[in-house]
Specification:
Helix content: 40-55%
Mean pLDDT: 82
Low-confidence stretches: none
Number of strands: 4
Strand content: 5-15%
Radius of gyration: 20 Å
Distance between the termini: 45 Å
Strand order of the largest sheet: 1-2-4-3
């Protein structure tokens, strides 16, 4: 790092600072260098017109998949015409997401929904769930998406979670229903 660069103070919440310092130590960097690298990368991504807030869940999911899955990753199942294949895709993705540290199963469901919403349209958070809205959600795509969520639900029922799935005009609404267990 150049010695002559002018430095500016940056204020942040104490919890954010502690997590940042811990990550810098873990990665073998000084806090100053690590912070500058992260912010530079974030600025570069934002300058490309990509909102980090909108892709955060996608990056986490893809990162977990690439860490844990030793094959090729595609958005659609091999046999896209089979309803069962779409269910299997949802079940497989939910199985991977069940084990994300520090994330509840409900949060995992919402993360996966965000992942699909990135490719399909917009996701709106609602009480105990969300709605995916898109002009690309025709009858055929809604059926595929619903079957992905049905596959996810097959995995989640073992943990006492059900998904209430409602199809609308160019939309799918999902409500996450938890039993009395704290998940």
């Amino acid at each position: 790092m150049e010695q002559n660069k002018k430095r500016h103070p940056c204020f942040m919440d104490e919890g954010v600072y502690e997590r940042l310092a811990e990550l810098a130590r873990y990665n073998g960097n000084r806090l100053y260098e690590y912070t500058n690298e992260l912010l530079s990368d974030a600025i570069q991504i934002e300058e490309q017109g990509i909102s980090l807030r909108n892709i955060k869940d996608l990056v986490i999911i893809l990162g977990k998949i690439t860490q844990n899955y030793k094959g090729h990753f595609m958005i659609s199942p091999v046999n896209e015409n089979s309803i069962e294949s779409w269910k299997d895709l949802g079940a497989s993705l939910m199985t991977i997401m069940r084990f994300v540290p520090g994330q509840s199963l409900k949060e995992s469901v919402i993360s996966l929904a965000s992942f699909f919403a990135v490719f399909l349209g917009e996701m709106k958070a609602e009480e105990n769930g969300f709605q995916i809205i898109s002009p690309f959600l025709n009858e055929e795509n809604i059926e595929k998406l619903v079957n992905i969520f049905k596959g996810m639900e097959e995995v989640l029922t073992k943990d006492g979670i059900k998904l209430e799935i409602k199809m609308g005009n160019r939309s799918v609404r999902i409500r996450v229903i938890e039993d009395k267990k704290d998940l």
